[in-house]
From TrEMBL:
UniProt xrefs under Pfam families: 2OG-FeII_Oxy, DIOX_N
Name by which UniProt lists this protein: 2-oxoglutarate (2OG) and Fe(II)-dependent oxygenase superfamily protein
Superkingdom: Eukaryota
PANTHER family named among the record's database cross-references: OXOGLUTARATE/IRON-DEPENDENT DIOXYGENASE
Keywords: Iron, Metal-binding, Oxidoreductase
Organism of derivation: Rhynchospora pubera
Length: 318
């Protein structure tokens, strides 16, 4: 059974913050400083924002979507080696939310590939490797630059946080979600409410809306500006910032007429980094609210249990 939601709980009138990546990377010091503040505010008030002027060529993004579409269209035999594996297998193809729990539910198809620190790829389609390598590299550079500005906004030392998270070996996963059309829909979930496990997640969709975020206790539609990348903050930014930047709850609904596709890439700490609140943000007035846990263990627990919403964070909450 699919889950249904009511449109009456939705608000859509608020405008999502926009971050101009061009200013973060090439602005004057004053412009950059203003944008760092805007980013800090977006992280604190929303956990969600649109990034414009990010420099990823439209063609590369379209090719990435197309390559994933071709991958989904391969025969079951060709996809079989990647179906039903363990969460830490570097390539997985499946349906539903959790491959162990949601057998047979196919309103969401996904492909998940680990692309950093080790790069993995599927052999087919033939152009997949080149496109995904380039796409991963570009999105990782954007994600790491955003994180750098986030550390700056938090007033924490970049080299310390990079060392604590072992960011040179940052874990990056490339995911595609394919949501087939669902008759009489628009109110049926393709993806249940959840937060993402990493530090930041970057999302690009095929022009079909369906993503909703929970903002100030209300669900709202997200309508990204054309060519913008949607970014949300994840659980490990919440842990690291000792709860200052909360990961945002989000979900996806199906479209009744057309298939929706999203390409999502999450950037997190190294899998073997033990993440805890950064000491710069912990003091007598704000004691640590999370304990340390190895990122790999968190990922495994979050993905293999049917934890609801932000339940995984309770694993480390003090
Ligand atoms: C995800 C996710 C939403 C979407 O992959 O974590 O939240 O719109 N996807 O596809
Ligand atoms: Ni998500």
């Amino acid at each position: 059974m699919a889950s249904f939601i009511s449109h009456t709980e939705l608000v859509a009138e608020e405008i999502i913050p926009t971050i101009d990546f061009g200013i973060l990377s090439n602005g004057t010091p004053d412009q950059r400083s203003d944008m760092v503040q805007a980013l800090a505010k977006a992280c604190e008030d929303w956990g969600f924002f649109m990034v414009v002027n990010h420099g990823i060529p439209d063609q590369l993004r379209d090719e990435m979507l197309e390559a994933f579409k071709t991958l989904f269209d391969l025969s079951d035999d060709e996809k079989r080696p990647y179906v039903g594996g363990h969460v830490l297998d570097p390539i997985r193809i499946g349906t539903g939310f959790n491959s162990k729990i949601d057998i047979g539910k196919c309103w969401r198809h996904y492909a998940k590939i680990f692309v950093h620190p080790e790069f993995h790829s599927v052999p087919k389609p033939l152009n997949f490797r080149n496109i995904s390598q380039e796409y991963s590299k570009c999105t990782r550079a954007i994600g790491l630059e955003l994180l750098k500005a986030i550390w700056e906004g938090l007033g924490i030392d970049e080299s310390r946080v990079k060392a604590a998270l072992k960011l040179d070996s940052a874990f990056q996963i490339l995911v595609a979600n394919l949501y087939p059309p669902y008759p009489n829909s628009g109110t049926t979930f393709g993806f249940l409410p959840h937060s993402d496990h990493g530090l930041v997640t970057l999302l690009y969709q095929n022009g079909v809306d369906g993503l909703q975020i929970k903002h100030k206790d209300r669900w709202m539609y997200v309508k990204p500006a054309p060519n913008s990348i949607l970014v949300n903050t994840g659980d490990h930014l919440e842990i690291l910032s000792n709860g200052k930047y909360k990961s945002v709850l989000h979900r996806a609904v199906l479209n009744s007429e057309v298939a929706r596709m999203s390409v999502v890439t999450a950037i997190g700490p190294a899998l073997d980094a033990i993440v805890e609140p950064i000491p710069d943000l912990v003091n007598g007035d704000s004691p640590a609210v999370f304990r340390g846990m190895k990122y790999r263990d968190y990922l495994e627990q979050q993905q293999s249990n049917s934890l609801v919403e932000k339940g995984a964070l309770n694993l480390v909450r003090l």
